[in-house]
Amino acid sequence: MAQFGTLIWTIHIMLVLESIGSCIACGRAEYRIGDECCPMCSPGNRVHRHCTEFTSTSCVPCVDSTFLDEPNGLIKCKVCTNCDPGLGLMVKQPCTPSSDTVCGTLEGFYCLDPTKDGCRAAQRHRSCKPGQYISHTGTTSTDTVCSDCPGKTYSDGSLTSCQQHTECEFLEIKPGTPWSDSECGVASLPIVGIIAGVLMCFFLIATIAGVCLFIMIKRQMVRREIVRTRPNSDPQIPTQVCLEIYEYISSHCTTLCFLLTDILIYWASFPDRDYA
């Protein structure tokens, strides 16, 4: 009976010792499989076969867009991250067996979910509305900042500063807005000047022609009176002079019209003149 009690006690002690042994932690470069502490595989490699009491861990490299970036006891490598252009991402650093892909932001995007070296999700920079200008250009980490254009300036939303409205010299067809420039037209006063110049030119010619015709008729009447009262006389009335004046004025009509028109246009080209 005493021997049986001793056997039970011995078995109990062995179980306790085994339990204590299983609770002892493995080294920093080891991982536990059952009762064994196996050496870890280096970064870029995975476990092919676990160690035994008589053999060490068997490791193989990660392949086919997989990686492990730390010493490990894993039998499968991690799948490399995909930089999805639909999320505004691009490959900044490609995946290797010992490191994951590092994603960056596409042009025109900024990062919403940054990581230590890259980004997990991005968003397109905002577009400024017409009437606003870009006060701060967007970066890979910040969004675009828009501001409203102040008075008498405009922007279509793509400018980094608002532009001054054009000051129309003569005629403003459409006033400027915060999103569009003023629209200017040709002043109507020069057109009036041209018409007035042409009319004055023809009026001048008509006046000269009328005066010449009157002189010619008058002198013809005088000549007839002289012939009637003095039959033997032959007076020479210088009507040719009037005809020469008329022909000269007529031949220079175009020059006179342009001269008068230029004078009237110049006079009308001052926007501050009081035409009333």
Automatic annotation (TrEMBL):
Membrane topology, record value: Single-pass type I membrane protein
Keyword Transferase assigned: no
Keywords in alphabetical order: Disulfide bond, Glycoprotein, Host-virus interaction, Membrane, Phosphoprotein, Receptor, Repeat, Signal, Transmembrane, Transmembrane helix
TM region(s), chain numbering: 191-217
Spans of repeat TNFR-Cys: 61-103
Domain TNFR-Cys: 61-103
Cellular component per GO, a single term: external side of plasma membrane
Any GO BP: signal transduction
Main subcellular localisation: membrane
Annotated disulfide bonds: C62-C77
InterPro entries: Fas_rcpt (IPR008063), TNFR/NGFR_Cys_rich_reg (IPR001368)
Segment forming the signal sequence: 1-25
Gene3D superfamilies: Tumor Necrosis Factor Receptor, subunit A, domain 2 (2.10.50.10)
Name recorded for this polypeptide: Tumor necrosis factor receptor superfamily member 14-like isoform X2
Organism: Salvelinus namaycush (Lake trout)
Gene: LOC120059069
